[in-house]
Amino acid sequence: MSQAPHNPPADWVLSEVERLQGQIDALTQELRAQESRAALGLMSRWIAHEVANRLTPIAGYAAAALRHPEDRSLTERALRQTVLGCERLSQFSRLILQLADEGGNSAESCSDVRQAWEVVAELVSAQARASRIELVCHCADGLTVSVAPSVLEHILLNLALNAIRACRDGGVVELEAAPCSTGNTSMIELCVTDTGQGIDEGVVHRVLDAGFSASGSHGLGLSLVRHLVDAVGGSLAILSSPKEGTTVVVRLPAEVSQQPKQITN
Q: Does residue 53 lie within any of the structural domains?
């Protein structure tokens, strides 16, 4: 920094202001670059994690079929699982594109909640069995949300995986879905509950922050779930107490045909 002269002229003051502004701009750009690199690292870990979630069932069935090539039924199941996994990966690719486009949803898309949960339950079934966890669904047929299938499945998949990790060794992961309303808007409320360890009161408010994880995982799943829920006009809340389990409450807009009709005079 140059020494300020006594009673500096206006030109000198303006020059110093421009110099300092240049330094501030350079530091701001560097800070943004560092934040972008950190966000890219988190996003890369999340994508790798999600792809692994979808490839694991394919690899498991394929390995079993190779060990027992004479079992035609097992081979057929392995092939069906491969097709299902490829479809899920294709949907996940579309989800990434939607996130990149900041849309997160298509106005013409809708999803059946029970069907989405059945897809997710299939994806996590091996992990649930290995941890002796029962997957339960209380959801009436015909509950449809105004959310793209890939988005709804991603939301439920992350909530289910978090719930399974929370149970550790035995327990129940349950989905309950029912209509509700927020003002004049019909919503579908999804509650994913686990009988796990619960979350300490001091960190409940942080579990939706990118990079934070109460379970030691990559710490981006719930942050992106919140992003997707917010993008479609929904809401998300977490209810948890230590040793009493956790319930994640997600409200999503009901499909248009389930919205209440406006009465006009």
A: no
